Amino acid sequence: MEKPLEIFQAELRVKDINDHSPVFNEREIILKIPENSPTGTAFPLSNALDLDVGSNNIQNYTISPNFHFRVITHKRSDGRKYPELVLDKELDREEEPEISLTLTALDGGSPPRYGTAQVRIEVVDINDNAPQFQQLLYKVHIPENSPVGSLVVTVSASDVDSGLYGKISYTFFQPSEDISKTLEVNPKTGEIRLRKQVDFETVLSYEVDVKATDGGGLSGKCTLLLQVVDVNDNPPEVTVSALTSPIPENSPEIVVAVFSVSDPDSGDNGKTTCSIQDDLPFLLKPSVKNFYTLVTERTLDREERAEYNITITVTDMGTPRLKTEHNITVLVSDVNDNAPAFTQTSYTLWVRENNSPALHIGSVSAIDTDAGANAQVTYSLLPTPDPLVPLASLVSINPDNGHLFALTSLDYEALRAFEFRVGATDRGSPALSSQALVRVLVADANDNAPFVLYPLQNASAPCTELVPRAAEPGYLVTKVVAVDGDAGQNAWLSYQLLKVRTARLLSERDAPKQRLVVLVKDNGEPPLSASVTLHVLLVDAEAAAAAPADPLTVYLVVALASVSSLFLFSVLVFVAVRLCRRGGAASAGRCPVAEGHFPGHLVDVSGTGTLSQSYQYELCLTRETGTNEFKVLKPILPNLSSKSIGREVEENPSFQVPFS
Fold this sequence. Notes:
With 660 residues, the chain is mainly beta.
């Protein structure tokens, strides 16, 4: 079949053959006929039954040859034929009190089949009047919902005889089994009532003969035709022939179901209308003879709705109207029509430098609204267009859950940030995917100690600063410059002493060489620090002015010596010799100075670095064997940011001045 869901109507007819003979229910029929019965009187006889139909059923009745009777075949409204015995010649009991005849029923087969019954006629004397019905045909209509015991009709017959011959009793004449179960007659009153409830959908009408018999055995008959009136007592019925579930989404006009509607009632009671809910994307299309097809009106989207509960409502046109509801459930199967969607278009992750390898640094997440394998998402790192970023050695991703891991230890000072794209692919066919941007920011850690740029620290040739002995208070001795490779708070340098100034006039009693240790400390957690040592050489004013230009002065001396007069020659020689001595002392790191004990005075130490705080320390020059240093006695201002430094200053008489 090219279209298996279409409906084709066929009718099968079974052709009857003449394989049954007529059969009488009674082998012997006894009739009591008064001798004074007039000619032409008809006497009903029991009919025979033949299971065949049509022309193979009973077609004719015959009686054996005799002088008094003949048989007539009559046809009922339902097609059945029955015999009647007609008196052609008056009877005489004294001549022939009893007559025996053979009744034959013939069917229309070829060859015809037949059945026989014996008719025994007793000629009755005296009672010469048979009961007579008021109507030969009683036609009655009764609703099918009439209760058991309902009165159908009352038949009535009369007999002009008197006494026992005038007393009448009523019976059904040759009732069928169905009529015997459905109707009953009162033998005295002639009332006919229901023994069981009739059903229009089972039997449309009933026909039965009612016989009235008097005390002398004479009888008359009438016919009852009972027609059942239909009432709307049957709701419509729905029979589903085919159902398709689930149906794929994105497919138009799919036949979901094929069903038929029936109502056993008649007329308007059997006419039906069929409908479904208005808010569903389905249509009902009528097919042949009460068949319907349920189809999709448009393409369905499983992500919008995955299941439909459809109620097929069938209503008849009777009064009152009866309806039937039939529910079917239609599932929508998934098609891979939705790509995974990330919860964010871009992700920003923070990682602290010096992390341990394989550290979980964050996660990305994508959601696929499909179902089954179409919704299973796999994550991957996409190639980066920047060849300078070695993405494969920096991060990895768990393909199942989107967790990101740092493969190596990151260094803020080398790589402060990098970005890459992450892909999410489902397992549908064909597979769909999407992308998201991930930016990784490296957070700084305090892993770099401060570095002193100036003065440079050289173990072989320490830096020496020249300070004139005649320097005024506030004289700029030197400037300390330090940097920190970290960022933010980790690069804030505390206690950074940028300038060192004298606090009083220097005298000849001060040691010619002083050593000052400056400590530089950042603001990280924990803090890191570095120290620098300053050598201060006390010199005369002339030497202090000439020392910075020592190489230039030598060249000038040589140039001036060639053109100067003899008068200046002796002066220049004197100056050159003096400069050479000073230069040698400076390069050796020591200079001859006068020895002696100097009283304590004040030296101002100012810091103008990242922490702009000013501190004053009371310093004194002491004479010691080998080295002379600034000795810190106590701070004048008590707001030092480090209490530990203050305690060390007071406890250690040889503390080296901290610098930040």
